[in-house]
Amino acid sequence: MMFAGMVMVATGLWPMLCNAFGRPDLSGDTIYSMVCIFILYWLITILNLKFNMAKFGGHIGVWFGVYIPVVVLFVMGLATSIKIGLNPAGYLGTFSVDKLIPNVADMSSLKYLVSIAFIFTGIEISSVYIPQLKDAVNNYPKGLMASLLGLVLLNIANGLLVSNIVPNGTLELANIAQPILIECQLLGLPTIIANIFAFMVFLGVLLQLSAWVTGPSRAMTQVAEEGLLPASWGFHKVNKFGVSTNVVLIQSVFISLFTLLYVIIGNVNAVFLVLTNVTAIVYSIAYIFIAIVVVKLRYERPGVVRPYRIGKSGNGLAILYAILLIGSIVGMTAATLMTTAMFDRMIIIGISIVLFIMPLVIYANRSPLWKSKVEADLKDIKQ
Predict the structure, then answer these.
(1) Which in 131, 176, 324, 368 has the greatest CB count within 10 A?
(2) What does the pLDDT read at residue 2?
(3) CATH code of the domain in which 337 resides
(4) In which domain, by residue range, is 276 found?
């Protein structure tokens, strides 16, 4: 999942660089996009092996790549929409009541369904902060719901504003600076604002990618130390920053292979959508297993104290939620795949199957010798 996800995020690097230097006409070039990701990702890989880049770039990257862009998009989008009103040439078009009801005759937009759902995946990772909260049992669910509500409202607001401003049929999915450039022109503002915005986002994405490079490495190192990966891969051996060189290098090789999709598919929008869908589908499979395990443990370990229990008593509500979650995931995935072009659909299914099956095959063929070899290596390193 991390391979497709990282390339998907990195897809925005080339468009941002083009807009930063006043050449938005080059942002859709697939070859330049591929070369840009390849060079920059290997650069941040080398830097992460030499320096502790996660400590340096994590917080700055989030501000440059997420917080500030979201606010700028909303403020400029709102100002532009107030000035021009509903744009009949935009994706929203003119308002009519019948548009509030989905058009069953044209379901092509369903191909974006999983991608939209992907925005909200991973919010449960915030649970790592539970030990720092007071009365976490009551406050954490409230905070989680408040965050989710804010995320939904902000994305809907920005989505509507961008849809009103960008001319129909011209949206570049990987180019977040596109609406800013259009808004500068409509508001009579200097386009250098869009250039600065694009360069800021470029730095933000680059710094966030740099911070993410070592994240999977530490997770894979932990898995290797538990003897769940072949010792010959050397994933349990780390440098002075606690980063496994082997993991990072193999990760970069796979990401380099994923960039070939730009040549195979030949369209930046299509590549971005394919990678987003692959990441979301693999992520969703994990959610399906979580739902199944929650219900399974209710019956296998009924006496365990559960602070965040679904339902005050019995298992009916937990089963209902599990069915709704699994049904939603299956429904969204099916709708997305059925409305996606056949060639892209095959790529999405193929990559998703490989990424899902690969760890299961490794786990099924695990050997006790892996654990003993890892322990021996770690003992030698400490000596």
Answers:
(1) 176
(2) 67
(3) 1.20.1740.10
(4) 1-382
Would you state the structure tokens that stand for residue 340, as one six-digit string?
Answer: 């996606």
- Give residue 354's pLDDT: 92
Residue 208 structure tokens: 């966030």
Residues 183-208 have pLDDT tens digits of: 999 999 999 999 999 999 998 888 87
Output DSSP code: residue 282.
H
Return left, alpha or beta for 301; rule: phi > 0 is left, psi -120 to 50 is alpha, else beta.
Answer: beta
User: In angstroms, what is the C-alpha Rg of the chain?
Assistant: 23
In contact, 102 and 204? CB cutoff 8 Å: no
What is the torsional sign of CA 254, 256, 258, 264?
negative
Number of domains into which the chain is organized = 1
Q: What are phi and psi of 226, to 5 degrees?
A: -85, 0
d(C-alpha 81, C-alpha 74), whole Å: 10
Closest CA to 91 of 81, 79, 101: 81
Nearest to 61 by CA among 214, 202, 156: 202
- The pTM of the whole model exceeds 0.70: yes
DSSP 299-367: HH-TTS--TT-SSSSSSHHHHHHHHHHHHHHHHHHHHHHHTS-HHHHHHHHHHHHHHHHHHHHHHHT--
Helix axis angle for 245-258 and 2-10, nearest 10°, is: 60
- Chain segment 26-81, per-residue pLDDT in tens: 888 899 999 999 998 899 888 888 877 666 666 777 788 888 999 999 999 999 99
CA–CA dist 34, 334 (Å, integer): 29
Confidence bin at 383 (pLDDT 50/70/90) = low
pLDDT score, position 181:
94
pLDDT band at 177 (very low <50, low <70, confident <90, very high): very high
- Neighbouring residues of 282: CB distance < 8 A, sequence distance ≥ 6: 1, 4, 352, 355, 356
- Tell the residue number behind the tokens 């939620």, with chain if given: 321
CA–CA gap between residue 205 and residue 10 (Å, rounded): 7
Cα 32 to Cα 259: distance, rounded to the nearest angstrom: 11
